[in-house]
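Methods — Computational structure assignment.
A single polypeptide chain was analysed. Its primary sequence is given first, followed by the predicted tertiary structure written as structure tokens.
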Amino acid sequence: MGGASENLQNKMESQEQAVFLRKKVSLLRTVSFLIGTIVGSGIFISPKGILINSGNVGTSLVIWLACGVLSMLGALSYADLGTSIKKSGGHYIYLLETLGPLPAFVRLWCEIIVIRPAITAVVGLSFGRYIVEPFFAPCEAPALAVKLLTAAGVSLVVYINSCSVSWTARIQVVLTVFKLAALGLIIVPGMMALAQGRFENFQNAFDSSTVTYDRIPLAFYSGMFAYSGWFYMNFVTEEIINPERTIPLAIITSLIIVTILYLLVNVAYYTVLTADDVLASSAVAVTFGDRTMKGFSSVIQILVALSCLGAITGGLFAASRVFFVASRENQWPALFSMIHVRHHTPLPAVLLMYPLVILMIFIGDLYGLLNLNSFPRWLFMGLVTAGLIRHQYKRPDIHRPFKVPVIIPGIFSVMCLFIVVTSLYSDPINTGIGCALTLSGVPVYYLTVYRPQRPAWCRKALDLFTVKLQILMEVVQQEIVTY
């Protein structure tokens, strides 16, 4: 009896010392991650983008609501996938399991060269702008100062993600509180003004003469960008405690909360500001604060900046798991499926995007980056939910703790593909570049994955290089299977 107890204790100690990604993400942390990642810079920069492309206040509010409903359809579909396919990796692993290796690799390729660097740069530039502007008011902040502070903020986030999963999760909870405080400072004054009868900015809200129908898809791009982030928990399924319950509950709860908050924030904006005020503003939340709280508008700016920092933290935390899983599936170099021996974080995967993010921060334009990354992002989300439909018919025997009717992924897929196709007409340059970068993944797949025949000297050199980096970073392969 004593021997059995000792063996059990030895086994537990051995598992405690083993290198693998632990389940440390609880329901509270999951909801905090989702709200903290969804509520980033989008609600503070997208109102202008939606208004420009929709043409009037009423249509813009309808688009905000439509984007929330559309996101909920996608979220329910992803909850189905996340509870039936237990691997981390989100879009990538779902495409791999439902549509095959080529679409999965092209999605991975886009994540690395377009989607993640562009999104991080967009949110990061918003962070830099909101932090720097109070120091230069009433003048415009120098672009270089914004970019330098953005680079510093991104570097800090990468460092935290590299050091500890627990610290990343705790910081995300704290930053989520700051985000909600920022939204509260906008909603409360706005609702008070509405209660006082300030309806003048909503007169002729649906003036059809100002609607620009050919640019509606770009308005949806801005709106869906503000809601994006509801899928991030699917990237880290293996690290979630009780994922079969936690993923659906967290996704649905978070999106309902965010949709209500976004509608209230936009009503508050348009109660205090005219449409022209919104279009003329480079930072809508700051302009709103100047009108409602005079000397305290800088508080809103700081809270908004922290909100953006939280979105970057959650986004990098989730995206690094995509590269980790792709490496584990032999579609990316082996180094990126390794874990730090002490911190138990996928260090190489976390560091992978850092150089490209910094590059896009210094050369990119905020709205151009937004449209550039939106094409591949929403194309593949439509393909993921189309893959769910195929998966339901092809593998009806799989246990599905949370199953959605086929009409839900069907509507989401059609809407995503419709937005993607029409955006090529609305903004052919940026979306065309996004399309070209997406298609560039096809020859890369056939050269590196489908027929990976390399000379012996090349394989030896790569193996030696991998070992040297492994020693430098103190990383090893995962020792316990977590899926």
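Note: The two ends are 32 Å apart (CA to CA).
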